[in-house]
Every structure is written in C-alpha cells, then in structure tokens.
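USER:
Before I trust my own judgement here, I would like a peer's view. Write it directly below this note and I will take it from there.

ASSISTANT:
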Amino acid sequence: MEVAGYIIAVLIGISLGLIGGGGSIITVPVLVYLMHVNPVLATTYSLFVVGTCSLVGSVRSYKKGLIDFPVVFVFGGASMLSVFTTRHFLLPKIPDPIFRIGNMVVNKGSFLMVLFGCLMLAMSISMIRSRNKLTVVPADQARNMLPLLLQGIVVGIVTGLLGAGGGFLIIPALVLFGKLPMKTAVGSSLTIMTFSSLFGFFSTYAEYHINWVQLLSFTAIAVSGIFIGTSLSDRISGASLKKGFGWFVLMMGIYVLTKELMRL
C-alpha cells in the first residue's frame, strides 16, 4: 500500500505543476489510508509536503514576476497567525475521544477525517463547476484588504486544523478582492501556502514523532511531480485537467466519509 502512496505523491506534484493547486487536498487521505500515518500526525506531515511543493512553485512564479507581495503580506500574515493559533491552541483542545453515544465512539482522528472529507466534497464541486470566470479583473478598482485579511484567517484555520493548503479558497479571494490577474493570483497563492504551511509545520513539529525518511521521501517524489506537471502544462488543457481532477477528489471525498462513518 505504501508503494501506491508514493505513486499518488507523483500525481499530487503533477497537479500542482499543471494547475497550481488541488493536489494538496489528497495528501492527508493518502498518508492516512495508504501510508498508515495517524490522522493528527498526517496533518502535520501534510503541512511540510504542501509547503515544500508550494515553495518550488513560488520560486518559479517569482522568476516570472507573478507574485504580488503587498497582497501576500496581508493575506499571508493573517493566515500564518491563524495557523499558529490553531495548531497551538485549538487542535490540542479537541478532546479524544470527542464524545460517546452508547457503543459509538467518535475519536479525534475520525472527526478530523470527516471534516477533511467534507472539505474534499466542497473543493471537488468547485473544481468540477469551475468555468474560469475569474480571469477578467477590472484593474482600475481599489483593492479591498479587509476581506483578504478575514479570508486569510479562515484559510489559516483550515490549514492548521486539516493540513490542507487552501489554494482553492485563496485564489478566488486574491482575484475578487486583491484584483489580481489569474496567473499572479496562482503565484501569490503558492507563496502564501509556502509561508503558512511551513510556518505551521516548524512551529509544532517538535510535539510529534516525525518519521523523516518517510516524510522526506514522500515530499521529494511529490516535488518531482511538479517538474513533470510543468513540462506537460503546454500540452494538456488546464481546464480539462482541473475538472477531471475534481471528479477524482469527489470520489476520494466520498470514500473518506464512507470509511469513517462506517467505523462509528
């Protein structure tokens, strides 16, 4: 099963290389169900994987001048603060088990995976129904930083709690409120995910027992997939891939929810 996990790690990187996001949402389920990592620890691993992969992508975006640093500072600063608060104060406060009803026990790991399954369903629907309506942005309109700040806090909570990068939440916010062109929004999103994810990991990793060989191997394979995805980006329609990947995430989300609810 671990071999299948490493194979899917390549697909995670390919997705990030082709469409600038999406792949990170399946990192935690892969780590939990194929790599047999504890769900809470898997969210920590995912922060490192997502952050490292996003770093590679953001470096490429920086070289192309596709990062808006004022927006990154506002959104990313709020996100990093929210990640820190969530990892240090909210996540440890979640009881384990959360509650019992007769013979049914809902533990912390199952609760996080159910939340993750719901997030996967929401993201998959967003990807499937996407029609790229966000590509045209009025350049003469003033930026509204307050919504960016608030959404940065929301994304930070999602990242800190579930280990997901939140790119599917970040990009629409950067386009609608930051008034960024789509390519700049993708580059800025990768930069925000780099800072928030790696900050979340390195601020809490000492609290967990990290299998560095497993984590670094998985991350290296995912990063290699980014370069594959980048090389394929001129040959494959990003819109078609995004919709196809959305269906894959939908099936994964249904699988996660079904598996966890059957355990109750």
